[in-house]
């Protein structure tokens, strides 16, 4: 049974569409897990720097605690009819140690610079290792568009 009105895209078109969404969207769902506290999922603002997803969260948040203990994460763009799932490992930077280009890119996109806030923040960088993208059932086959950090197609 097919999904009406959905045309199958080949991998190069899916990659193009995924990169466009990463460059333009604001929110991404971040899924983490902690060995003692279990799974945790939150939406965060993000900036795509062309190679990695850059996010920022409070330094004492559950997300920050989790990625310090278990850096493997899954990210998802928030559209169930145009799914993009990203898997990778989180690299963490306290706000005083974040590279200027990353902090400035994030601040430039949102008009908000966490480094100027009173509380401590943690910047999180996730370079994709696996990316899956699909629009409905016709695209389930071939949904992996990046494997082992290499874009396919």
Automatic annotation (TrEMBL):
- Which keywords does the record carry? Oxidoreductase
Q: Where is the Pyridoxamine 5'-phosphate oxidase N-terminal domain?
A: 22-134
Transmembrane segments annotated in the record for this chain: none
Q: Gene3D superfamilies given for it? A: Electron Transport, Fmn-binding Protein, Chain A
Q: Is the Oxidoreductase keyword given for this protein?
A: yes
* Alphabetical list of Pfam families matching this protein: PNPOx_N
> What is the protein name for this chain?
Pyridoxamine 5'-phosphate oxidase family protein
């Amino acid at each position: 049974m097919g999904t009406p009105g959905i045309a199958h895209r080949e991998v190069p078109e899916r990659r193009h569409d995924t990169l466009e969404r990463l460059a333009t969207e604001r929110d991404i769902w971040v899924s983490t897990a902690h060995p003692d506290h279990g799974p945790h999922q939150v939406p965060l603002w993000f900036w795509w720097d062309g190679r990695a997803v850059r996010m920022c969260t409070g330094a004492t948040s559950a997300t920050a605690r989790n990625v310090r203990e278990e850096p493997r994460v899954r990210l998802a763009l928030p559209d169930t009819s145009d799914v993009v799932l990203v898997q990778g490992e989180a690299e963490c930077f306290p706000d005083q140690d974040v590279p200027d280009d990353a902090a400035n890119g994030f601040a430039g996109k949102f008009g908000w610079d966490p480094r100027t806030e009173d509380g401590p923040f943690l910047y999180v960088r996730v370079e994709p290792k696996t990316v899956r993208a699909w629009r409905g059932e016709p695209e389930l086959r071939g949904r992996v568009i990046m494997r082992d950090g290499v874009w396919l197609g």
